[in-house]
Amino acid sequence: AQKVTQAQTEISVVEKEDVTLDCVYETRDTTYYLFWYKQPPSGELVFLIRRNSFDEQNEISGRYSWNFQKSTSSFNFTITASQVVDSAVYFCALIVSGGYQKVTFGIGTKLQVIP
Amino acid sequence: DGGITQSPKYLFRKEGQNVTLSCEQNLNHDAMYWYRQDPGQGLRLIYYSQIVNDFQKGDIAEGYSVSREKKESFPLTVTSAQKNPTAFYLCASSIQQGGWVGNEQFFGPGTRLTVL
Fold it and tell me: Which residues lie across from B13 on neighbouring strands?
């Protein structure tokens, strides 16, 4: 069985601070994909990034960066110089090989950026 | 613009009534999904469909039903058998290519259902 743990349920930071959202996953499959989604107050989930299990390269996209470490089964997400528009719930998710692409979601981390 | 539409955005239902939530996509995706979101519980899969005229139960299918008569449409009916239907419902779709590829899902704006 697969599991995604987001231990931080809520985080508050002051604007311009850096913040890291943690994600730890569990799976016995060797082939899998990890995702991060953003859910702003409007409700619609927005895809941010996908990383497959064979690619441990970290990725940076503007103020966003992701750190994938298979040794610790973690896929952490860092926002640099946070802005009020970053306030949202962020979900980490996992798909394993085979089947119908069933996604296992974490419970989400609610980020509040205070001006 | 390609995307997923869900209607209505807010829905109120009296206890004991069935209600149908609409989900339409024009992304030409084969796979479609319904999720339920409750505070503090993340997203839970209700039903999914990989192709037209086929669908499978997810983790919490009891009290729900779906149909997939057209590729672009995947309506969800919340029946009176669903014990606690008040929740936020999200529809999603993804490309379903031959062979397995971990494709991202695209989500609609959601429907917030409240049972009075």
Answer: B115
